[in-house]
């Protein structure tokens, strides 16, 4: 399934939620929608699934040579922001009901359910009412419900929310499995470490506008984060000493002997080191590769400053 979104806009009363956003999603890729609360991610998802329509701009969804202005329900697996299974029904009843609603025969539904319950280690819990499960396990059932009918496109709004780190990793593996099966996946998430492991391409938004877009590599080039060095000293160093010695740098203490420094430019490294060497013995210096979390923070703070200016 291929999606081309061109200059879409959406307003609610006085709020401009999406302001001229364009992007494409290619078949079989994992596409991440990122941005702070209120950025417009859910508004975009609601337009993609046809729950609302753009005020302006176009959405073209292409699947098996046919074109649509939103993703047809029969091709869609959707994990909405406000979940929506039946808490008083068993895991099994919920999943079989939904799968059959999507057109699977009882036998197919059973087969798919068994497959996914085993992957999420929920086979033993299938007879329990959904409400009896922990939040994390309920979330896993919701994820299964979104994919049980093998949709061409899966949209997952906050798939990692409420999950502990081990279960977050399981969801990463789950999403990789979907991609391996040829499904196209759109996810919105706040957990940059997870997104970094997964997303083929991403769209970083703020206040309805695109801030950065592309692969992780593209985003690294666009964000131009400050170079960060990690420095280890022989003697213990405190946050107060660091702030006094390096008042013009953004420093972050990682342990008694280790801290990071965000340099305004790489050329400032020698000045920074000379200042430190007057007081401390430096044991190691290494440049740190910015991760998506740092790129996100850099981009957001640059966007905020542009807005103020
Ligand atoms: N139904 C609505 N009526 C009025 N305003 C809305 C409605 N839905 C969203 N908004 C507003 O539109 C803006 C974008 O909201 P949206 O839910 O799309 O953001 P989001 O990026 O998904 O945020 P979050 O990460 O918190 O889910 C916000 O200012 C929000 O208050």
Automatic annotation (TrEMBL):
GO-annotated molecular function: ATP binding
ABC transporter domain location: 3-232
Gene3D superfamilies: P-loop containing nucleotide triphosphate hydrolases
Keywords: ATP-binding, Nodulation, Nucleotide-binding, Transport
Pfam families from the UniProt entry: ABC_tran
PROSITE patterns: ABC_TRANSPORTER_1, ABC_TRANSPORTER_2
UniProt cross-references to PANTHER family, sorted A to Z: ABC TRANSPORTER ATP-BINDING PROTEIN (PTHR42711), ABC TRANSPORTER ATP-BINDING PROTEIN NATA (PTHR42711:SF5)
Protein family per UniProt: Belongs to the ABC transporter superfamily.
Protein name (database record): Sodium ABC transporter ATP-binding protein
Native source species: Alishewanella tabrizica
Lineage, broadest ranks: Bacteria, Pseudomonadati, Pseudomonadota, Gammaproteobacteria, Alteromonadales
